[in-house]
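A quick aside before the break. I want you to see a complete sequence-to-structure record at least once, exactly as it would be stored in a machine-readable document. Don't worry about memorizing anything.
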Amino acid sequence: MHATLPLLKSTDFPALRRRALKTLQVNLGYRCNQTCVHCHVNAGPTRREMMDEATSELVIQVLRECKIGSLDLTGGAPELHSAFRRLVEAATQLGIKVMDRCNLTILFEPGQDGLAEFLATRRVDVIASLPCYSSKNVDQQRGDGVFDKSIAALRELNALGYGQSGSGLTLDLVYNPLGPSLPPSQATLELAYKRELFTNFGVTFNRLYTLANMPIQRFGSTLISTGQFADYVRMLKENFAAANLEHVMCRDLVSVDWRGDLYDCDFNQQLGLRRAEQHGAHLRDLLNTNIEGDPIIVANHCYGCTAGQGSSCGGALTS
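That is the input. The structure line, written in tokens, reads:
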């Protein structure tokens, strides 16, 4: 796989500083039951990097002592980690909002019996990947049969109250473009998703998040192989919108990898752009270090978050 950091590190992206920390985004490991062409984590069934028990317990300590409001669990497939349910239970008992970055098909993997019921009982927000409402596009991006399994999982979640008005159980979907282009209007695409999924499958959900593909890891390597990398980065830069700087996720989120190392965002994690030691480079440092006001490490991939309507783990940044 081609290295993308050497092509991104030299940058004129504007300097950014942190606000107060609100969200701890924890990557429990890179093992996944899917291998998606757009995956910025390069996750898959053969990956073995997984957080150890001591670090997962440290996550709980940091949540408790640092009064963090949100826990964002990601991977790979975070549910494959043996500590996933322990972390969810501990965080919800502390009154912390928990988000599960779910690929949907994980509900049908061996050992995941009762996963949907567990999430509903703990009132976990499910943020589910579904890159299109068409089976052809989804299977092309995520593998044969993934679309049908995803629809089955959405129906199971709906039956438990997820995505249903008044239930308080949030089910949000995530869209990624199939190739090197910016996502369409999030509001317009959400209407199309809701219409098509309900009409054809009886599926309902709360919100759609549109995410730009980052020119890193598997997607970035594919761009290099096809000679499209420079053009894609140029397109991101040409569509830079300064208004998005106020809302980028790295301002109040910190990303934790499977070893407990800290990064300003999940994308920096995948590029190995670890936070500087003097600004808190490990999860344990959050127990005695206030990172508010710290500089954020930037590179040219940051234009992916600020191009057009913007892009973050919570979808578009501006309408």
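Two observations worth writing down. The chain has one domain: 20-214+246-294. The mean pLDDT is 92. We'll return to this after the break.
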